[in-house]
Amino acid sequence: MNSPPALAPPRRRAPASAKSEQRVRDILRVGRDVFSERGYEHATTTEIAQRLGISEATVFTYFHGKRELCTRVIEDWYDEIIAVIEAGLPRQRDTRAQLEFFVRTHLRLFLTQGTGLCALVLSEGRSKGQEALGDAFAPLQRRYTAPLMDLLARGQASGEIRRDVPLRLLRTMVLGPMEHLLWEAVLQQRPMDADETASGLLTVLYPAIQAPKAELAALRRLRADIELALQGAGSASA
Q: Which residues span the domain enclosing 49?
């Protein structure tokens, strides 16, 4: 009979002093650099400590080990991307524009601000086991995709996104191609223009998830708006 999996130890909590908080920020900053440059397997807490001019024991004061530190680095990186996406989505005019913004921002930030971390997530994200990162990344991935799920749910509620396809499948239809494109760009080092790729992807993707007759309804609304504007212009010139 298999024994139950061991529970991960709770994250160490930094003391509430300003000096300790700054130390944690420094460790995370340098940790991001080292994990980006070395990948998870070859990164070491020893190198992180050396770059900071502190002892490795000081790193372990705030983090149980490399796995927890790497998870926190990715968590903070995801939080930064989520903040950009959540701030920009409400400024887009409709569901299609919001979806294109999500795809473009996702590709742009993964490519221009976090290529090394992107490679780490793609290569380690599916790994399993007590020391692997895949299980640790799962809750981060769910939190990261929450804005997309909300966007798609709102699109279904407004009649812009088809309702006969489950949200989980719609999410996969969006994220699956992006992951493949990032895999090619980052791990196979194929050049990719994030803005051009996002536009092309939406051209193919959106008709597949758009609600039937939604495009026709949008054209009718546009025609009505134009007719109303023309009427207003005619009244003003009379």
A: 12-64
Q: Verify that 143 and 158 share a domain, yes or no.
A: yes
Instruction: Identify whether 171 is part of a domain.
Output: yes
CATH number, domain at 59? 1.10.10.60
Which residues does 226 contact at the CB level (< 8 Å), separation at least 6? none
Asked whether residue 165 is assigned to any structural domain, the reply reads yes
Counted domains in the chain: 2
Per residue of the chain (238 residues), give pLDDT as tens: 444 444 445 555 545 588 889 999 999 999 999 999 998 889 999 999 999 999 999 999 999 999 999 999 999 998 999 999 999 999 999 999 999 999 999 998 888 766 788 888 887 776 665 566 777 778 888 888 999 999 999 999 998 999 999 999 999 999 999 988 888 888 777 888 889 999 999 999 999 999 987 555 566 667 777 878 888 776 666 5
Distance, in Å, from the CA atom of 238 to the CA atom of 234, rounded to the nearest integer, reads 6
* CATH at 159: 1.10.357.10
Same domain, 45 and 74: no
Asked whether 28 and 11 are in contact (CB, 8 A), the reply is no
